[in-house]
Amino acid sequence: MSDFLRDLAKFDKKLKKILDEASGPKALDFIGNIAVDIIRNRTREGYGVKKNGGRRQGLADLSRGYIEFRRRNSSRLSAFTSPGKSNLTFTGKMLNGLKFKRSGNSTTITFDSSRNRKVAGYVSVKRPFLFLSIDEIGQLVKTYDKYFAGLVRSRNR
Fold first, then answer.
1. Among 26, 40, 51, 137, which residue's beta carbon has the most beta carbons within 10 A?
2. Domain residues for 141?
3. pLDDT tens per residue, the chain (157 residues)?
4. Which helix (H) or strand (E) holds 100?
5. How wide is the angle at C-alpha 86 spanned by C-alphas 82 and 92, nearest 5°?
């Protein structure tokens, strides 16, 4: 076998390992954590997204009655909100319960409890938030590109 063919076989083997790792559990966990952080932080800022690839937009305003309820119960409010701020954060439990679930070669955003899933289902009707905007998808892709480049660099030493 020529040196060229031997080098090509080594390269092919190394490339397959990199690609397997780049789409494996560790990579999916990395992507899942980033996606959860993006959704949680954007929602705490008071923005939602109606569909994947959509545009970020402000969450619907709170009703006067609910603002008053939040004022009366301000001791229970999360540090990430105020009585009049629409950011799906009263106590913070629902957004803190955001997590991802890895299944096969995909990652799904979900919640840590059925209660948080129910609350999210209820509030999502008027204030959709469980999607990634086109800009956030771009951010996720750029972050993954850096992850992949680091993986390639680490395997070429």
1. 40
2. 24-58+96-155
3. 688 888 888 888 888 888 888 889 999 999 999 999 999 999 999 999 999 999 999 999 999 999 999 999 999 999 999 999 999 999 999 999 999 999 988 999 999 999 999 999 999 999 999 999 999 999 999 999 999 999 888 877 6
4. strand 98-103
5. 65
**What's the number of domains the chain is made of?**
1
Q: Is residue 34 part of a domain?
A: yes
Residue 139 lies inside a defined structural domain of this protein: yes
Contact (Cβ atoms closer than 8 angstroms) between residue 129 and residue 39: yes
With beta carbons less than 8 A apart as the criterion, state whether 77 and 90 touch.
Answer: yes
Q: Is residue 64 assigned to a domain?
A: no
Q: Which residue type occupies 35?
A: A
In a domain, 36, yes or no: yes
User: With left for phi above 0 and alpha for psi between -120 and 50, is residue 53 left, alpha or beta?
Assistant: left
